[in-house]
User: Fold this.
Amino acid sequence: MDHALPADPHIEIRQEVAKLCAKFPGEYWRNLDRDRAYPTAFVRALTEGGYLAALIPEEFGGAGLSLSAAAAILETVQAEGCNGAACHAQMYIMGTILRHGSPAQKTMYLPKIATGELRLQAFGVTEPTSGTDTTSLRTFARREGDKYIVNGQKVWTSRAEHSDLMLLLARTTPRDQVGKRTEGLSTFIVDMRAALGKGLTIRPIRTMMNHNSTEVFFDNMEIPAENLLGVEGRGFRYILDGMNAERLLIAAECIGDAKWFLKRATDYARDRHVFGRPIGQNQGVQFPLARAYAQMRAAELMVQEGCRKFEAGQTPGEEANMAKMLAAEASWAAGEACIQTHGGFGFAEEYDIERKFRETRLYQVAPISTNLILSYIAEHVLGLPRSY
Ligand SMILES: Cc1cc2nc3c(=O)[nH]c(=O)nc-3n(C[C@H](O)[C@H](O)[C@H](O)COP(=O)(O)OP(=O)(O)OC[C@H]3O[C@@H](n4cnc5c(N)ncnc54)[C@H](O)[C@@H]3O)c2cc1C
Assistant:
């Protein structure tokens, strides 16, 4: 009987992405980080390589790859010390157009998103007053003839200054006029190039890492009615439909981060000699690394299980949520162990560890915070009463 495990089906993709990433070493990212600048050359290279179009079907000009292949791309980007946060949304936001767009919208947008001619990597959901309570959002799109007039505000709209289009979630029927709070919300494709200065204002937010996030203001901004996606009032459902893929891809990025931290830390622990022996010979140094490795592997298996279910046409809500939480915790544990292993040098910019440490912390908060994942598991998996 052959007990050989199947070979990694994405080994070639990983090798090619790693080769591309080698052209963008730590120095490239450190310089951008210092200026809070956007990694234009890196994003262009990924786009030209076709990687950001991985999930777009071939009939629309994409690579038509599986979710696990897309996960392998993003994991490798992170494991090679780069930062996919600059462009990962170009991979998955288009899923809402693919699933809920009209044939005309698909033909109009998807081929251009696939080539990178159109950048769809801004996702306007979070608002300052509603936070995680998405259905309480206040941005309102009022229908007037053949257009919608939008008023309101979004916060943490990442990459808005580096995107041509935004997927916007806005209320179209007041909350007190719908049976369920999840109803009366709609999704739109906003052409930000046309709207900028005409009701659309974007203001960058400086954050502890280089994330190009912004706040966005809508003041009587007009959207042509033809830019509504799917049926008016069903937008919340459409956003939920994309979340499992998004969570699995972000989890894959965290796995990549964890692998980067563990590689750096174990290399250093073998080489660095203190008291006449490698520091990695001390169990006090070994154990946090071994624990983080175990956490990373468990999370990696959960990502694979989520992708497997997704690709089989099932809904991996449980796996996607658990993968995102476990992977974000594993990357943080690995980052913490990596800094500690490096002693003082963990804090030196030129080692890149403090940068990756800041970058990976985000994923316990965004795109969904750990508490909300625990609430999901408690309610939807364990059958406990809803807590909020
Ligand atoms: C750098 C960055 C980039 C982002 N990019 C985007 C983007 O591109 N598009 C977008 O729409 N959003 C984006 N976000 C927003 C992100 O999704 C939210 O920050 C996140 O969902 C948490 O929402 P909040 O910040 O409003 O926190 P809040 O909802 O105010 O929550 C604050 C804290 O309270 C906890 N909490 C709240 N309610 C409960 C409860 N019922 N039970 C237990 N704990 C609770 C939360 O877990 C959290 O820890 C980004 C955020 C950041 C920081």
